[in-house]
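In the laboratory, one determines a bound structure by crystallizing the protein with its ligand and collecting diffraction data. In a computational setting the workflow is compressed into a single prediction: the sequence and the ligand go in, and a structural description comes out. We illustrate the idea with glutamine.
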Amino acid sequence: VVQAYLKRIDDVEDKVNSTLKIMGEEALEKAENLDKNGIQAKGLMGIPYGLKDNMCTMDVETTCASKILYNFKPPYNATVVEKLEQAGSIVLAKMNMDEFAMGSSTENSSFKKTHNPWDIDRVPGGSSGGSAACVAAGEAAFALGTDTGGSIRQPASFCGVVGLKPTYGMVSRYGLIAFASSLDQIGPMTKDVEDCAIVLNAISGHDDKDSTSVVTEKKDFTNYLTKDIKGLKIGVPKEYFQEGLNNEVEQSVREAIKVYKDLGAEIIETSLPTTEYALSAYYIISSAEASSNLARYDGIRYGYRAEDFDGLVDLYKKSRSEGFGSEVKRRIMLGTYALSSGYYDAYYKKALQVRTLIKEDFDNVFKTCDVILSPTCPTTSFKLGEKSNDPLEMYLSDIYTVPVNIAGVPGISIPCGFDSEGLPIGLQLIGKAFGEDTLLKASYAFEQ
Ligand code: GLN
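The predicted complex, in structure-token form:
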């Protein structure tokens, strides 16, 4: 199996460019060991996967697609890597991403641009663009991505794969290089919903090493893959179908609503009134947390260090100026500004208050609905370079995904059709906190 995927990488990688490091030898060695031990193929045993390069792999470069982490080889594995290893799965490659997971197109990587396998002149989405593209191109059986404001669901939507952002606290973040700690979650990116459930089984659960991971009842998510969704109450928020939504995307999502009706679900028109404030709150909160998290890259302890400098402060300045890319610098400045005395109350504190209101919006809708349905993204994949000089335009593509991270609830993107140019369209389903079982059930019923 590993050989077959390596061959596939060999065949298509020059067009897709999804990997930052292919771990072919290590992967083959692991596979041979499994073969030798005569271990029975079941579940994820022997199944190769792609790992977004912001998750630590012991003694193997972990770059976050940033120059600042130059030559950083973590002395430990992320918990998700350990868990997948225990399940017998094999890391095949570290995947390209936007630097520090900041972006929506993977064009912010310091190393290369990944192409959408459906049309190689287009972006795969981001920031987990390498992970989405590798699954879509058949370069790995599945991948792990991370989602702070949509980075699993949006690229899944652009590449026609399934992407789940679990409830905050469902999957350990230990060994995930932080972007915005109160929003970041790791999740599966897979060919279909069943694979998603299998991978979620393997990576979820409490971890002593992450104090925000939650003790939950252990569930086998594959048990929920039944087609029976009769009576399921699906909320359709009107704010997610307004200006900015592409016609063909809207049409396709409306078709999906019909499919759910035919399956016996009850469709409820509903409202999330604070949606219009979500993007502003997200970009303040995430940038504030990023500015604090990224303060550790000082050119001293590890990673990139400038060569010519004049004293300590100059070393910090030059290492950070040369090591970080422009989007990361923009977020650090934005975040530092929002946290600075005099502006804290007006921006950061206000954003936290909005966060509470957004969460209340979701709580209200979930009083009457089991899941919420919407488009994942206002558009399908755009051309490489089309939005890279316009950060605000790029931020707008996160409009339907960021509220989910702000509220901490789970969200999944599943393929629901194609536009007239043959590009995949994604349908988003949002669940109650720790309602992954219902979410997967509803996704599976649609997929069938
Ligand atoms: N596109 C969003 C951003 O740039 C989301 C990123 C993410 O989820 N990691 O912040």
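The pocket of glutamine is lined by residues 101-104, 127, 147-151, 179, 286, 398 (CB under 6 Å). Keep in mind that any predicted model is a hypothesis to be tested, not a measurement.
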